[in-house]
Amino acid sequence: xxxxxxxxxxxxxxxxxxxxxxxxxxxxxxxxxxxxxxxxxxxxxxxxxxxxxxxxxxxxxxxxxxxxxxxxxxxxxxxxxxxxxxxxxxxxxxxxxxxxxxxxxxxxxxxxxxxxxxxxxxxxxxxxxxxxxxxxxxxxxxxxxxxxxxxxxxxxxxxxxxxxxxxxxxxxxxxxxxxxxxxxxxxxxxxxxxxxxxxxxxxxxxxxxxxxxxxxxxxxxxxxxxxxxxxxxxxxxxxxxxxxxxxxxxxxxxxxxxxxxxxxx
Length: 265
Hints:
This protein has 265 residues and is α+β, with helices and mostly antiparallel strands. The protein has four helices and twelve strands; from the N terminus they run H-H-E-E-E-E-E-E-H-H-E-E-E-E-E-E. The chain has a twelve-stranded mixed sheet with strand order 7-8-9-10-11-1-2-3-4-5-6-12. A hairpin with a 3-residue loop joins strand 8 and strand 9.
């Protein structure tokens, strides 16, 4: 149990996931629930049809300090995915530089700053890997839901309201702006309008935490023509890098030591 708890703590950086089901309430005339769910389903179906995906992103995570000051921490990363069972992800910020390799059998987590890595035997698909990290290690990984083969069902779990707000522009690209609510969080997503309905921006707002901190994911590039070979998902330790047990793996959140989400020490 200590190993599971520790692994959950150190791997929380990984594409960071809020779950959400569908019980829609009516909204104002400018916010139509049926349009929101239809557009989200179109995005989900489009993503599921792409065998290979390459993503670059920026992400912000807000923390409320004990004296109720809101502080934001920023990181950048990449994702390379080959369905159904190959994944590589990186995240670099001011407090950690980490990487994940998953080859369908083993998930390897690397802390580049500390020159250490740890491994978890977890054969199966990307969906099963994300599910295991959630269910067995209690990971919350906002954004990991966008990698699943059925994004729609996962995102809509727990939803009590859905609205199509209208149009917005992200990095010069026109997007459909959708807003959803659950009992604990509000979340918004901007989906590229037209023939390529990919996510461009994703915000999760925690309503049960003082001052409602947010997690923001901004997709800078989402390529569906990515080409990758098996070696792209296989970890080869660099000289001087050593393997450690999961409970010895260093903290890898994108937060300074001693500070956690919600302003708790």
